[in-house]
Amino acid sequence: MTDIHPPARHGVRTPLENTPARAWDPTAPIDAPLCLHRPHVVWDWVDYNGHMSESCYLLVFGDNSDAFFRYIGIDESYRDQGGHSLYTAQTHIHYVKEVAQGEPLRLTLQLLDLDPRRIHLIHSLYHAATGDLLCTGEQMLVHVDMAKGRAAAMPDFLYARLQAILQAHSALPVPPQVGRPMGIRRAP
Predict the structure, then answer these.
(1) What CATH number does residue 153 fall under?
(2) How many CB atoms are closer than 10 A to CB 47?
(3) Which of 54, 63, 172, 183 shows the greatest Cβ crowding within 10 Å of its Cβ?
(4) Model pTM?
(5) Is 86 in contact with 119 (CB distance < 8 Å)?
(6) Which domain holds residue 158?
């Protein structure tokens, strides 16, 4: 029997994979925060407790990052032609509420800070119908030279786009989950 599907180059697929980045319009208003991804909870994301499994929140945040990358001009051609990409260096997830199969989701992304090599952002996941906050994912992304395997400065066009987004997001309040340390709180 012949397999009609060619072998995948990798196992994990994102909804926007092989979708070209959108053209950047420097005169267009920038939403604060950005809202670029609105999935529904699919059956594969639901665990034995009947709600979205903890690992799938990170999967959805990754898909939101992918939408963000395309918003700022990064797609497979950016990686393949320039040998650069954005890698996640750190993630801190705060689970707030459960969500079940079929429920609509709305994700936002707020740029918190950046420098020529790093992007600090937070994803917020909401129930699209009720507006309830379900989860946040604070992340540090690093712009990487893939051949050298280390951080590299972003090209000027990309850094300028991110600075414009940061400026648009600078008036937003910093979510209370940002920078919170993990640990067991004890009474004195």
Answers:
(1) 3.10.129.10
(2) 11
(3) 63
(4) 0.90
(5) yes
(6) 34-169
